[in-house]
Amino acid sequence: MNKFESNTAGIPEPQRELKVTKPAEKAAGFMAVAKTVEYMNREPGLVEGFKRLAKMNQKGGFDCSSCAWPDPDDHRSGHEYCENGAKALASESTAKTIGKQFFAQHSIAHLAAQSDHWHELQGRLISPLIKREHDTHYQEISWDEAFSEVANNLQSLPTPDHASFYTSGRASNEAAYVYQLMVRMYGTNNLPDCSNMCHESSGAALNNTIGIGKGTVKLDDFPKADVILVIGQNPGTNHPRMLSALQEAVRKGATIISVNPLFEAGLKGFAHPQEPKGMLNLKTPLAADHYAVKPGGDLALLKAVGIILLEMEEADGSVFDQSFIAEHTLDFELYLESLRGEDFEALVEESGISTAQIKRLAILLRDSKGLITCWAMGLTQTDNAVATIQEVVNLHLMRGQIGREGAGLCPVRGHSNVQGDRTMGVWEKMPDPFHDALDEHYQIKTPRKHGYDVVETIQAMLNKQVSSFIALGGNFLSASPDTSITTKALEGCDLTVQISTKLNRSHCHPGKTALILPCLVRSEIDQLFGTPQIISTENSMGVVQSSTGHFPAMEESLHSEVAILCGIAKKLLPDHRALFENYETDYDAIRDDIAQVIPGFQNFNQRVRQDGGFYLPNGPRERQFTTASGKARFTANALIDRHQDEELLTLQTFRTHDQYNTTVYGMEDRYRGVYNDRWVILMNLQDLQDRGIESLSKVNVTSHYEGETREMNAVTAIPYAMPKGACAAYFPEANMLVPLHKTAMISNTPTSKAIPVSVEKA
Ligand SMILES: Nc1nc2c(c(=O)[nH]1)N[C@H]1C(S)=C(S)[C@@H](COP(=O)(O)OP(=O)(O)OC[C@H]3O[C@@H](n4cnc5c(=O)[nH]c(N)nc54)[C@H](O)[C@@H]3O)O[C@H]1N2
Ligand SMILES: Nc1nc2c(c(=O)[nH]1)N[C@H]1C(S)=C(S)[C@@H](COP(=O)(O)OP(=O)(O)OC[C@H]3O[C@@H](n4cnc5c(=O)[nH]c(N)nc54)[C@H](O)[C@@H]3O)O[C@H]1N2
Ligand SMILES: [Mo]
């Protein structure tokens, strides 16, 4: 049996003791404002902080770099931000910097021994750094030398496929486009991205059924919906501005249903911090009903609802939208057959939801004239994720709940430009028409063989098939599964390059040669070559808009992401030097080329400068399904055998209220009532008692997969309301328990919400 021990990730914060209180009954309110003030004060200072906030998400301002929730098309308030957007801005606007001296003082080993929160508190990276073989410290290097290091290494590889190029979803459209172009001109499709660990399952399910890997609703649909399902998503923390949309919908009479093993505070109620009532902490109740589904039980629940709807239809013909089904869909019979083949009682058991509740949901769906379903990681990071999301699509198609006002599918994206990066071609398996357009426009021959995704990249590093790793943002080591294996993979590389804004754990476990290339953030003016440049992003609802930095760069010589990529490309691809020279001095030139290569971007430069930007084409929004047949497809989605040992629990790894993915802003998970300590596991009380474990005592958690075990030790167990058999720990610490090869079918997304674990007294 292979055994993996805990390693450097999740080094605990030493200062304070764990405090546990009752979970909150609502999100936001006065505390959200108080926390905004606290973080602004901690990082840039109050005056500077609020000056910056006033420009965020405003027309002519810069796009918030936190989540991908859209801004209102017309009625923007003077405060289009939330507590967590403010934390993200405070983090990037910090007055602290770390340069030459800091890295001379702290060895890489010392940095590796510090916590994620400590990393976050040190400040912004300001100069290019290098660590050569056998060095113990990073040292400063010039930009020019840094670019040569990268280009020389890449040119020396046996094949371009020996390098892999990661992207995190904060990169702008312009940076993402230049990056994928450089990588494909160089000769590989090894373009893994954070999406591989995020909404890949949504993309796979939606592409297969409606022909586009994106959602179909607009923000304006929310007040027009009468039923909104929020499945496997925690908007109170991760998409706080979505609560305003939910509040408006409720005030107009919509019914919101929460489907989640936990009843998250943000779905119980919302106290709008910009309304007087909200500041007094008076809440608008949001979810009318909570479905405490078993982990991974969503597919069973959705199928059980489908069966009741089928029965209702057979009784009185009140359910199916026959004309929509006939005109716009295929394979309806296949879907009905799959429902008829199920054992209803087994579905009830598997879902953990009572028959009465299932019937209530079916009635709600039958009577709904406008259904929106929102989902996020609670669906995408499970074993049967793609099937589950396809089952959501089935329920929408049978009632024609797509492509009309107040109805549609809403995968809620994570990173602020993760959707745009994909549109720009950051994907290891872009379809042929995209390659054809690149080839024709640049008179090149891009490689067609699909590249590695995240999991495959790590495996290829371990097999020595990838020896150079370049990351456009992100924190590959902490975000990826299986921390100790991924550490080994990264450390085994000949070259690792991180284009980053702040220190993170990926810098602490470098390859033989390692570079850190610091870049500008969105709020800063981008004018390295004289003229200020704008960038653009695409939000979760397909709106492309400009983002203009308004504040001086932290350090004059700081490069933008585009400038860094062009700096590398000019040396790596001497034949195309003039192209990248043109791109780095004028982002309009990049956008002019995007307009010619990528559908939907005609007149890009002009339209991106319109107030509020523009919508990208989205066929399914108009019932023009972009599948091969032109019709939306029903699918038959089989349940998988999820039987596991009675003793085992299902662990999910999720976010606290005080972090942005691997960036730990602070030590509070305020809505869940957990303070000062992240090294914890939330468990059902009965499961604790069955194991003779006392509340708040230390436990050892072991994950089990294919005969291998992984351990996270001396974790504090906290009783929390969730179904028996479920438990939860914080990401990124608990990534040490997530097996690299335990991934969702089809999408290959690590199943970060579905890890079989045993828990015992420490
Ligand atoms: N402030 C802040 N904002 C963020 C982020 C952040 O870290 N901080 N991250 C950004 C990114 S990249 C992303 S992808 C999004 C993430 O946004 P979310 O998906 O909301 O993030 P998670 O914390 O992973 O929460 C997942 C939710 O799914 C539930 N869940 C777990 N297992 C299951 C299951 O089997 N079934 C169901 N129905 N529910 C389940 C969990 O209880 C939890 O409420 O947020 C983005 N926004
Ligand atoms: N166990 C577990 N693992 C998960 C998840 C989970 O729920 N559970 N969630 C997954 C999900 S949904 C995602 S999206 C991934 C996230 O994976 P990543 O996107 O790789 O991780 P982040 O923590 O968002 O990256 C933070 C780093 O990005 C850099 N950065 C910040 N802003 C910028 C910028 O503007 N430009 C550049 N170049 N760099 C910048 C900073 O240096 C910072 O340290 O993690 C995944 N991993
Ligand atoms: Mo994400």
Give a brief description.
It contains 31 helices and 33 strands.
CATH class of the largest domain: Alpha Beta
Strand element count = 33
As residue ranges, the low-confidence spans are 4-8
How would you classify the helix and strand content by structural class?
alpha/beta
Shape: globular
Number of helices: 31
Quote the CATH topology of the largest domain: Rossmann fold
Major sheet characteristics:
6 strands, mixed, barrel
Measured as a percent range, the helix fraction is 25-40%
What does this structure look like?
The structure is a single chain. 35% of the residues lie in helices and 17% in strands. The chain folds into four domains: 27-92, no CATH class; 96-198 and 417-602, Rossmann fold, CATH 3.40.50; 200-411, Dimethylsulfoxide Reductase, domain 2; 649-761, Beta Barrel (Barwin-like endoglucanases), CATH 2.40.40. The chain is globular and about 75 Å long. The chain has 762 residues and is an alpha/beta fold. Strand 30 (698-705) and strand 31 (708-719) form a beta hairpin. The protein contains 31 helices and 33 strands. The strands form nine sheets. The chain has a six-stranded mixed β-barrel with strand order 24-32-29-31-30-33. One ligand MGD is lined by residues 65, 168-170, 194, 197-198, 377, 381, 414-415, 472-476, 479, 499-502, 504, 519, 521, 561, 653-654, 660-663, 731, 734-735, 738, 752.
